[in-house]
């Protein structure tokens, strides 16, 4: 049965013109309607159709901070075995040549990597499958292939990383004797923002803070892309891994060298070592009497 209106009152229009409007002139009518009125009315009418739910913990995993609130995956950190350049005692960090065979594993480096792969197998790293994330640098990718072969992992689970895991660029130290890197670490111990001297051959001169930004971006990707997986990170050098581990455990970045990785070394990231989030000491530290900063 249809219901009829019992009231003679007609509701006012949503947009009513002011009393002074000349209704006989349409142009005057349209000018008198405030555009803000129109937009407000439209907003009120369509708002119920659009809802924006709050993000839950799993959806917010991409908002990564160091030290992390939690880790969604299990991580193994692996330094590739000795490179051809390292066997000659030469610093080689120029990314221009990172895919060259000259940047690959030495004979000793291959042996070190096989031992690392066997260690990962003994630790059960890939029992329930795993992902291997190596730098595209030749020695790191070769190491990833050896790890995959020993642990029965298909090549489809090797994910090459093209920039975030590049060896730390040491600027003017490029091509120098490997022993001279101690000068870089002396600067690191004073401040994470000190860069090695620059050079014009394409080799970056990266501070600890520069590398920290890179590895934090890497972890943000991994924590967003995977959940309850095992990820093996393969780096061509030690600094990527020591700075990453220092960030994870909340260690002052000036002390990253204390966590040094040898060629072919494997380390499991222990979730128990990750503290409740706090601002890293390196972010608040100020040296009042350089170079005596202790």
TrEMBL record:
- Compositional bias (Pro residues) at which positions? 10-20
By its UniProt entry, which PANTHER family does this protein fall under? PHOSPHOGLYCERATE MUTASE FAMILY PROTEIN (PTHR47580)
Q: Which InterPro entries match?
A: His_Pase_superF_clade-1, His_PPase_superfam
What is this protein identified as? Phosphoglycerate mutase
Q: Where is this region: Disordered?
A: 1-25
- Superkingdom of the source? Eukaryota
């Amino acid at each position: 049965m249809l219901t009829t209106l019992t009231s003679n009152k007609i509701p006012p229009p949503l947009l009513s013109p002011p009393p002074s409007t000349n209704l006989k002139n349409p142009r005057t009518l349209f000018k008198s309607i405030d555009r803000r009125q129109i937009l407000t009315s439209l907003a009120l009418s369509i708002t119920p159709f659009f809802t924006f739910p709050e993000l839950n913990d799993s959806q917010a995993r991409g908002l990564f901070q160091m030290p992390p609130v939690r880790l969604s995956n299990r991580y193994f950190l692996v330094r590739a075995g000795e490179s051809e350049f390292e066997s000659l005692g030469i610093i080689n960090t120029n990314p221009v040549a990172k895919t060259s065979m000259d940047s690959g594993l030495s004979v000793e480096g291959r042996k070190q990597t096989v031992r690392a792969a066997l260690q990962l197998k003994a630790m059960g790293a890939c029992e329930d499958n795993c992902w291997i994330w190596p730098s595209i640098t030749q020695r790191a990718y070769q190491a990833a292939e050896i790890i995959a072969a020993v642990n029965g992992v298909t090549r489809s689970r090797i994910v090459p990383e093209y920039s975030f895991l590049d060896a730390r660029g040491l600027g003017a130290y490029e091509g120098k004797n490997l022993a001279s890197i101690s000068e870089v670490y002396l600067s690191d111990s004073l401040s994470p923002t000190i860069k090695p001297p620059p050079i014009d051959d394409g080799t970056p001169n990266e501070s600890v803070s520069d590398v920290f930004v890179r590895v934090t971006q890497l972890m943000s990707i991994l924590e967003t892309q995977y959940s309850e997986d095992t990820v093996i990170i393969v780096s061509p050098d030690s600094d990527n891994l020591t700075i990453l581990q220092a960030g994870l455990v909340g260690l002052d970045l000036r002390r990253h060298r204390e966590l040094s990785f040898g060629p072919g070394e494997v380390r499991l990231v222990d979730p128990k070592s990750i503290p409740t989030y706090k601002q890293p000491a390196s972010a608040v530290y100020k040296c009042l009497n350089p170079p005596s900063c202790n």
